[in-house]
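Hi support team,

I'm filing this because I wasn't sure whether my run with adenosine monophosphate finished correctly. The job status page said complete, but I'd like someone to confirm that the output block is well-formed before I use it downstream. Pasting the exact inputs I used:
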Amino acid sequence: MATKKKTKKSKLQLVKGMKDILPDEQKYWDLIRDKVDNFAHNYGFSRIDTPIVESTNLFKRSVGEDTDIVSKEMFSFETPGKDKVSLRPEGTAGVVRSYIEHGMLNMPQPVKLFYMGPNFRYDKPQAGRYRQFWQFGFESIGDDDPVIDAQLIIISYQILRELGLDIEIQINSIGDAECRPQYIKAIKQYYQTNKNDLCSECSKRLLKNPLRLLDCKVKGCNELAESAPQMVDYLDDDCKNHFMSVLEYLDELDVKYNLNHRIVRGLDYYSKTAWEIIETDESGKLHALGGGGRYDELVHTLGGRPTPAVGFAIGIERVIIKMQEKKVEVSKRKGYDIFIAQLGIEARKKALKLFEDLRGAGFNVVESMSKKGLKDQLDIANKKGTLFTLILGQKEIADETILLRDMDSGVQEVVNFNKIASELVKRLKKIEEKNLKAGK
Ligand code: AMP
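And here is everything the job wrote out:
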């Protein structure tokens, strides 16, 4: 007799480095989205959404072939049509491609854009580091005035402050194509003479991306970086004046900042101002929540006419981790106004229709049709924070009425079924006026 072969099904799990955003966490995302939208609106930035998939060459030419991001961390593949594409590892390159492709060079400058979306880096996952992570970012393209750098720094700083985080800006200037080569020469020389103290990664970086040596946190490299030559000593007049002006603007405003000669940002496209937004935890450990900088060459490098630009990006998951650690109070998204409760099959039918009618008329309404008992339904209404519950039972159907329960006081009144919408409008308006008076 043939025996049935048991096939063991492997358990399906999240792909390594990925993360679900569960309903409990959504209130943080809602708050951040609202905050970003508000800032964008106030500072005159328009939303842009570029595709997650871009040509691999875009990142090679912008972020740079020798950076860790491009050389090791990209999710790259060939499409069936043999195009070499990658999941974007960061947001700026796509925005600049779009700026050039859609002729935004011909619009009034600067063009101010913001975005929010997922990025992908095949890095080693750990706390606060994922292979898919979200960023929001602001970019101002088409103006080289240092006031724009200062404004973007302020936006990046204030958004996080208003989200309840105590952060500081660490800032540096990495010069430009004119003065940076002399500095890189000096850095190479310095590290060459201390080659034996470098970690294996930095020994390779010394040849390909020497600025990144300043970024390394491995003990020996960290100590070396502290006494390495500093870019500020190599800035030419243009870069020095630009940097001084940015700092003067920051001094005018209430921004906590510190000069840090080790902020280099690591991507090829940066020039002049570079900054990171740092949070220090209770044990004194520093955490980067975001960073930004000028990228005056990038539009030109990607095929546009020379156009200065500056921008920043902030990692949303890390911001949320910090908000949770700091127990930042995040109220749930605005509660629902009206819950519809029903008792019995006939009532449920009528309630379904009423729900659709009220929702269609713009009421903020919620239900739980699968529940049968009134107590269960009122519990849900309470949990959802509704202001009123409408109750439909056999008697109400026969009388063509509905019960209107004020969830605060518990008082119930019988209302003519056909007048319920106008009754709700009246009562919601009263509550709104009361809240306005109380400054809520
Ligand atoms: P970067 O442009 O690489 O400095 O990234 C800006 C910000 O994005 C960082 O400060 C982090 O908050 C966030 N970020 C970068 N890489 C990751 C990652 N692998 N996982 C989670 N967040 C990240």
